[in-house]
Every structure is written in C-alpha cells, then in structure tokens.
Design a protein that fits this description.
This protein is of the alpha+beta class. It has one domain. It has helices at about 35-55, 85-95, 100-105, 145-150, and strands at about 20, 25-30, 60-70, 75-80, 110, 120, 130-135.
Length: about 150
C-alpha cells in the first residue's frame, strides 16, 4: 500500500523502514524492524542532538519509542519543542548539517550471536541518502502520531 502524502521523489510503503522528517509537525520519525533497534537509535539520536546542536531533552525536544508487536511497528519519534530545537530540525531538513544527518542515519551493528554475527540497521539501503519530508494535506492529519500510524497502515 503506497502512502498518500508526497515525499521528495519517494513512495513509502508499509514495509519501508527508515527516517522521515515531518516538516509540518516538526518531528523526526524512524521506523524500525525491532524494539531493540529503536532503543539503540534513541541513544544515538540523543548523542547527536547533544553533540551537534547542543540540545537538551525535555527542554528542546521530546523523544519517545512506540511499539506495537502485533502490527510490527517500532517507531522512534523526536518532537522539537523549543526555538533552538526547531532551528536544528530546519538545518537537518535543509541539508545544513550533513554530518549530523549522517550520524542519525548511520548503520547500527547489533551483535546477535550464533551464526548471525551482526544485524544492520534500517538505513542500509540505496535510498538512505535521500531525506523523506512529509507534509499533511488536510485536518485528518492534525495529530502527529495519527499521521505517523496512517503512513504505515
């Protein structure tokens, strides 16, 4: 099922994993295949926002992991609340901070053990370098999380 919203030259389907910049909601969203990857990414995102933009959680942004095992959803969302946070988000979506964007999308290696030594993250794809920017079109998408779940349903 393809997404109804417009993404810069990309069609997002239910099975897609990746990073989405919600320009209207000033939210950064990542979809992961498992809960462990979402929590590892949360740790990495916190470090990137602190290091590159000097942002503090609760003051400049709010981050949360939402999981739905029955539907296979593991979402990490970061909502920017302060003016500094919104400026950092603007820099990310306008390619003004490529090193930070690269760190946000870096491949996480997760030791699994046994015959499978490593598991790559969601950004290990040919479209990893393209940012996805979402813009809501009508009042149905007024709630940020409703829009996020609508994308992947």
């Amino acid at each position: 099922m393809a997404l109804g919203a417009s993404f810069s030259d990309l069609t997002v389907t239910k099975g897609d994993h990746g990073l989405i910049f919600d320009a209207e909601g000033v939210t950064l969203v990542g979809r992961f295949s498992d809960e462990l990857s979402a929590y590892r990414a949360r740790k990495q995102w916190r470090e990137v926002l602190k290091t590159y933009f000097l942002l503090e959680e609760q003051r400049d942004y709010e981050m949360s992991v939402m999981s739905s095992p029955e539907n296979g959803y593991n979402l990490l969302s970061c909502f920017f609340t302060s003016a500094c946070g919104r400026y950092a988000f603007w820099r990310l979506i306008n390619d003004q901070a490529p090193e930070a964007e690269e760190k946000l999308g870096e491949v996480n290696l997760v030791p699994v053990g046994g015959s499978r030594r490593f598991m790559s993250s969601i950004w290990n794809s040919h479209d990893a370098h393209k940012a996805k920017v979402m813009e809501g079109e009508d009042e149905e998408f007024s709630n940020v999380f409703a829009r996020i779940f609508k994308i992947f349903s």
